[in-house]
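The data are quoted verbatim for completeness:
=====
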Amino acid sequence: QTDYLSSKHIDGGDYVAATFRRHVFTDLGDLHLKDINALHIKLVLDKAYKDKGLKRTCGVILANLRKMFVWGTTFRWIPQDPTYGLSSNDWDGYGEEGQRTLTDGEIVMLYKQMHAEECTLANRWNYATWLIMATTTRSEETLLAKRDHVDLEESVWMIPVENQKKTRRKTPPRDHFIHLSPFAMDMMKKLLELPGTEEFIFPADIQALEKPRPCNKKTHYHALRNR
């Protein structure tokens, strides 16, 4: 599991490990894997949800426990997955995201760092960052944008349903239209002037593709984090 976490998570699995230490090992740490059942896991999630109000953490706990137990059943360490039948929805595991926003000072700091002489961030990711900041779109849905989604004359950018995050909805899904401010429009035009944007605004950086496709959904995140 340590090898899996280090290879699949940017932080080497530190967040998942810390979550397990705080909420899982305290109650399940002394039990053998084969003795853990759905009731044990329910008690862990109930404690995190009812006593501490950690809705999203419940979703993280259950998702990672499920990965662990599925991995265990694959190698016959345990006879079955005890998380089977449990759903994050029962503990509001897909609760509202936090309302963390950048302060004015942080925005200024970000701008200075991205435009510093030693910064090696490509123009595409510089423009993408400020477009996301100006429109409050998700990074992953932004990277799926196509040239024909943008109406330059009307300053409108459409995000079709299939590019949007799949979440619980109170209303039927529909295409999302964003009016681009002059600043956002400037960033969009700069992006469209870059090479390779005949179809996708953020094309995959692979030569001789038979069919154009967008870049990986984590490319923008990695470009920022690595610099």
